[in-house]
Amino acid sequence: MNFTKSNNSSILLNSLFNNRLLGVVIISKNGEIMDANNYFIEKLAYTKEEILHNRLINFFAVKEEKDSIETTFIGEQILLKKDGEFVGFNLTVDLLEGEFETHYLVLFQQENKQSADQFNKKKLELYNTQKESELNKQKVFYETILNNIPSDIAVFSLEHKYLFANLIALADPEKRSWIIGRDDFDYIEKYNKPLAIALERRKNFERVLNLREEFEIEEELTLANGKKKWVVRKMSPVFDENNELIFIIGYGLDITKIKQSENNIKKFMLAIEQSGASMLITNTDGIIEYVNPTFCKNGGFEKSNIIGQNFKSIQSKINESNVQQTMWDMITLEHTWKGVFSNKRKTGERFYEQAIVSPVFDEKGKKTNYVVVNEDITDRILFEEEKKKLIEELTSSYNELKQFTYITSHNLRAPVTNLVGIIDLIDLDLVEDKTTKELIFGFKKSTEKLNETLNDLIKTLIIKENTSLDFIRLSFQSLFNKTIQGIEQQIDKAKVEFDVNFDEAPDCVLISSYMESVFQNLITNSIKYAKPNVPAQIKIRSRREDGKTILTYKDNGIGMNLNKVKDRVFGLYQKFHKHSDSKGIGLYLVKSHIQAMKGNIEISSEVDRGTSFTITFK
Amino acid sequence: MIQRVMLVDDDDVTLMICKLRLKKSNFCEEVITAENGEEAANYFEQQMTLPEDERVIPEIIFLDINMPIMNGWDFLEEFEKKYQHEFPQIKIDILSSSVDPKDEERAASHPLIMGFITKPLTDDNLNQLVNSETFLKYFS
């Protein structure tokens, strides 16, 4: 909107605008400059474009807005020129009632120069103090920042004197202010520190000074408490806008923690590198990221050829079995996989590895890698194979031997039974010749012995062979009854007195024929080794203890001195009596039978007091 | 006394001894021998062709197990199939030197077998038979 043309008082306004002694400004009711005359613009040394549409108050030295336009833009006011100088005016304000909007007409009459100069001087002082305090504030601000950075920072002059040191570099505030303008040599002299540090630092400083480039070094320090501390020292040259070196900043960063974990990693690395187990790390796709020397050695690989390859393809090249698929299924399922790889070396030689493949998870539970640890177990496997072969050979010769024993015993048995039959039929009374009679008697005795021995051997063979006999829950009483029925004649003849009670443990899971044989052998032994003219007394009891069944057997026979016979008492062909019937197989059979029934037998005996047995079944 | 015993055994010494034993123990009047299962089966086969009153049939058979051509078990199978219904009165005892406990078990569970005698055949064995229910009648 152009007031000069649309307003009714256009003539008056035009004359005011052209006035060379008065500043004229039209503002909106918001204080926005709508128009200004040349006098005003020139006085403030702006261009018209710079002024228009700014708020008028922005050009005031004291920007104090009051309740209304009329009260704000009135009286003596100081305005700010573009060059920072002040200019004083006397202001009047009038309302301009327009056709559409309300505007204000502000008139500026210049004040005398003196008051503006005075004002200028006063304001300048104020301005300078403000600026100074702002600078101070800034200085404190930056110092606070520098002091709070967790690394030591120092600024040096080109003469290597300290211009600044932060709190980390020197914690003591006294020392910190003392050092300014001094150098490391002063510090060392005053605080009695080793000279080497200062010399080293000076050397590095000069290097930066001469080469005008950054320099970095790692320092290893031993603290008063004996602990190690590692610091990275960095010196950086600082240039001004003319590329002149103005000072040098030194930083020191405590890297003790990094260094410690680095050392730990180094330790682990050395352990992995020198481990006898071959190790390999892949990413989640199976791409090999690391292999240790043992892996390369075992497989005959070059490390450089293997990094970046897929573990699966490497493995399938050397692996003979099809375990990898299983393994890979397992580990994609996020489980540890264990197994044996049968591999071929580059030389074609076979080798075996016990492998453990484990997924590795980060702290967020995300799978990051696979670790493969292989142990060369070739020796063990070869040994196992050899052992297996040996066992096969042994089994085969054992079977041959068994067959041979069977055939021998059977083939022997047939003629021996004939001999026994013949002896049975010979009537000695009919033989008249005395010598012949004696010979036949000897023949008879030998034949009987041969027959018994053969029978015992056969029984032994049967026990050793028949592991498939059935275990059934059997009543001790009925087994006992069946046994004594078979040897009734012997028992009657010897007038054996039995005291038998199986009430506490009436039955047990046993093999019928074996247990009968045990009873029979024990009873016939008791009869054989009874005291002369004293009938055998046999006491048998059963009981349960800790889930086991215990059978005790006791006789009143001649007994024996176990100290002399000890371990041999249950041995084959061990005789402990000069008894005519003794063949030394009875107790061996008893023990074999009991062991075949997963039981155990113990003996105790005393000469002239009798013998007792304790049989334990699980 | 029993009229007739059949001995089936491939060992002629055994046959000789058994014959003597049977005679000495006055167990039977007559002994028929066969050297293996087949020979014994043939004997019965032949008896089948004769009229009933002309047949010569044993009351008891002592049967060995291990024999060539047709062993004791084979013979039992054959006998059960072909002759048992014809001669149901015949009793069979195993007389063997077998050391295999399985043979004894098998014999115990076989319906035709009355007993299992381990060689040699003794007077005691025969006495037991004499006193058994089956044969007591022959000796009273």
Describe the model.
The complex is a heterodimer of chains A (618) and B (140). Chain A has 618 residues and is α+β, with helices and mostly antiparallel strands. Chain A has five domains: 109 residues, Beta-Lactamase; 111 residues, Beta-Lactamase, CATH 3.30.450.20; 102 residues, PAS domain (Beta-Lactamase); 77 residues, no CATH class; 152 residues, Histidine kinase-like ATPase, C-terminal domain (Heat Shock Protein 90). Helices cover 44% and strands 26% of the residues of chain A. Chain A has 21 helices and 22 strands. Chain A has a five-stranded antiparallel β-sheet with strand order 2-1-5-4-3. In chain A, helix 15 packs antiparallel against helix 16. Chain A is rod-shaped. Chain A starts with a helix and ends with a strand. The N terminus of chain A is likely disordered. Chain B has 140 residues and is an alpha/beta fold. Chain B has a single domain, classed as Response regulator (Rossmann fold, 3-Layer(aba) Sandwich). Chain B contains six helices and five strands, in the order E-H-E-H-E-H-E-H-E-H-H. Chain B has a five-stranded parallel β-sheet with strand order 2-1-3-4-5. In chain B, helix 3 links the parallel strand 3 and strand 4. In chain B, helix 2 runs parallel beside helix 3. Chain B is globular, with a radius of gyration of 14 Å. Chain B starts with a strand and ends with a helix. Classes of the chains: A alpha+beta (618), B alpha/beta (140). Chains A and B meet through helix 15 and helix 16 of A and helix 1 of B.
What is the end-to-end distance of chain A?
Answer: 120 Å
Task: Tell me the name of the CATH class of the largest domain in chain A.
Answer: Alpha Beta
Tally the beta strands of chain A. Answer: 22
Write down the CATH topology of chain B.
Answer: Rossmann fold
- Report the sheet-strand fraction of chain B: 15-25%
Low-confidence residue ranges of chain B: none
Task: Give the CA-CA distance, first to last residue of chain B.
Answer: 8 Å
* Topology order of chain B in helix (H) and strand (E) letters: EHEHEHEHEHH
Computed Rg of chain B: 14 Å
* Largest sheet composition of chain A: 5 strands, antiparallel
Q: So, the CATH homologous superfamily of the largest domain in chain A?
A: Histidine kinase-like ATPase, C-terminal domain
Number of domains of chain A: 5
Largest sheet of chain B: 5 strands, parallel
Strand order of the largest sheet of chain B: 2-1-3-4-5
* Number of distinct helices of chain A: 21
**Helicity range of the residues of chain B?**
40-55%
What would you call the quaternary organization?
A: heterodimer
Structure summary, number of beta strands of chain B: 5
Overall structural class of chain A, as computed from helix and strand content, comes to alpha+beta
Mean pLDDT metric of chain B: 89
